[in-house]
Amino acid sequence: MLNKKTIDTLNVLLADYHMHYQKLRNFHWNITGPHFFELHLKFEELYEDAKLKIDEIAERILTLRGKPLSNFSSYLSASNIKESDNTLVDHQMVSAILGDHQALLAQLKKVNIEAEELKDDGTLDITGTYIGELEKTSWMLNAWNQRN
Fold this sequence. Notes:
By secondary structure, the protein is mainly alpha-helical. It is 78% helix and 0% strand.
């Protein structure tokens, strides 16, 4: 069942979600201003979702008989998503999250290419769900960001 290419692309996705998760925690802790209450709660909702996805991705890698990345230096090295400082304001934070979503969607599509080649329906089921959810969340965050 081992497919190195699928496992490798899933490990990059795992790293991406870890970086995204940490950025959401950063923003949750450091949001200030008139949109504090709504964004504080939204960032928490998003990082809780990312936390679940991190576990699912790692478990999928293990199911495929691979080894998930499991330390921050590996995440920093492998991820398409970069850290963000804690001085951004509300609309900059949302824009940064939208940028992360684009990186996550691009990596999800790379995973799909590898999984489709092997007819790996389990991985395709996971990534298809994630793509739909990310697209919807991106639409909503983009709509919120238009008011700023």
